[in-house]
Amino acid sequence: MEQKMFCFQCQEAAQGKGCILKGVCGKTAPTSAAMDLLLYVVKGVSVAADALRTNGQPVDKDVNRFVTDALFSTITNANFDEASIWQRVQRGLLMRDSLVQQATKAGVSLPQADVLTWHGASDEELKAKATTVGVTSETDPDKRSLKELVLYGLKGMAAYHDHAIRLGYEDESIHAFLQRALNQTTVGNLSVAELTALALETGAVGVQVMALLDRAHTESYGHPEITEVNIGVRQNPGILISGHDLHDLEELLRQTEGTGVDVYTHGEMLPAHYYPAFKKYAHFAGNYGNAWWKQREEFATFNGPIVFTTNCIVPPAADAPYRDKIFTANATGYPGCRHLTEDADGRKDFSEVIALAKSCPSPTQIETGSIVGGFAHNQVLQLADKVVEAVKSGAIRKFVVMAGCDGRMKSRNYYTDFARALPQDCVILTAGCAKYKYNKLDLGNIGGIPRVLDAGQCNDSYSLAVIALKLKEVFALEDINELPIVYNIAWYEQKAVIVLLALLHLGVKHIHLGPTLPAFLSPNVAQVLVEQFGIGGINTVDEDLKAFGLTC
Predict the structure, then answer these.
(1) Disulfide-capable partner of 8 in 18, 123, 517, 518 (CB 3.0 to 4.6 Å)?
(2) Other CB atoms closer than 10 Å to residue 15's CB: what's the count?
(3) Whole-prediction pTM value?
(4) Pick from 524, 518, 512: which is nearest to 193 by CA?
C-alpha cells in the first residue's frame, strides 16, 4: 500500500508507530504534506535568522512572530485548513529570501543548504517537494527521534510564547533559542550526544517560557484563587469558548457584556474561571462539558456558536448540527469555518459570533453541580503551613502529579481508576485537561485540603513545579526527588512534550508517562530516558500503586 504521509507526533499515532494514510486526529495526507513543507520553510527562515543574529544583525519581529505562529499551527488538532497552511508556506519563502538578501548585503556567510536555496515555482513543485522533506527524510533513527523530540518541544514552547505575546509579554531570548535550535537540528550535523543536550536545553527554555506565561496571566488577570465553577446551564443563549487563549476570552467577555448572551468555557478554558479579573462578568456562566475529545456530542447539545482560540479541534461530522457555528482564531483553522482575524491592536471583533448566538436556543443541560479549582502556586503557597503540617503529621502521605492531557483511547480510563484507587492520604496535583478523568469524582478532602488540587491549564504545570520546589525548600531537602511526590502523567500532544522536557531539566526523575510512550522515541533514545531519568510507562492500576509505594 502506498504511504501517503507519515506523522507520529501525538499519542494517538496509529498502531503506536505513526499515521501513514490519514491522521487519527483527522488530518488528511495533503494537509500533512503542506505542514511538512511549512516546517521545512520555517527551518530555512530560522537558519538565516540565526546566522544574522549571531553576526550582530537585526532580525525583524515579523520573523519571530512568523516562526512562532507556524510552529503553533502544526500542533496536533490546531489547524486542518490546508489553504491557510499553504499561505504560510508562501509567506515563509518570501521571508526566507528576504533574510538571505539581508545576509548577503551585510556580508554574513550562510551555509550551503537546500532549505535556503530551494524554490518552487508552481503548486506542483511545492507539493512534490513536500513529499521529500517530512520526518523520514532523516534516515538515522536515533537522530530522527531526538530531532523530533526537540521539534515537538519547540512547538509547545511556541504555543506558550504566543499566548504570552498576545498579552504583551515577549522575550527575544526565547525567539533566539527557537531559531537557533531549528538551525542546529537542520544544518548543525549534531551528534546523538549533542542532540540529547539540546533536548535538555529545550526543557530549560521551556521553564522560562512557562514562567513568562504565568507572569503574563497573573499580572493581567490576578492570581488564580479557589473557585467553585458551575457546570450546569442558564436560560440565556450562549457562546462556548475553547482552547487556552485568555486574551481572546477577555475580549469576548467584554463584547458580550449587556447583550443577553452568556459565555461558557470548554476543555482547557475551564481554569479561566479561577482568575479574579473574569469574575466581574456576571454573564460568565460556567463550564460546559468535558475534555476536547467529547466535543462532537457536547457541541451538538450546546446549541450556540463555538470559538476555538487554540488547538483541540475535533473535525465535525459532515452532518454535525454545529458545523456552521464554528469560529476559529489565531493559529487554528478548519475548512469552511469562519476565521476571526485581529486588527492592528491585536483585538478581534466578535459581533458576528454574538449575532449568531442571539438566534440560537439556550444550551441543553447535560449535567449539574460544580467543580472546584484554582490551586495554582500562589494559592497553594498561601496554604503552605496547612499543607506542611498535614505532611509532617502523616495526614498526607504522598502527592501524586497527574497533569497532562486527556484523550479518546479507552485505556485512558486507567487514570480514573487510578484516582479512585489512591489511598485516602494521597492528594492529586493536576493541570491540563487530564483532570477531566477525575475532577468530578467525589474524592473528599484531608483536613480541609481537597484531594484534587487543580492548578489550571497544561502550561500551569509550571505552578506544580513551583510548588514542588517550595516544598523542597521548606523540608530542607537536597534533591527534589526526595519529596513525597510521584509523577503519573498522561500526554497527548506537543505542549505535553515541552512540559516533560521542563520537568527533566528541573531534575525530576521517575516519571511514569502514559497511556503509551511516544512513538517518536527510538528504542535507543527511550533506553537513555529510562536509564538517565527513570522514565517509564504505565501498567495496571494495582501494579503502579505498588511501584509508587501507594498501597494501603
Answers:
(1) 18
(2) 9
(3) 0.97
(4) 524
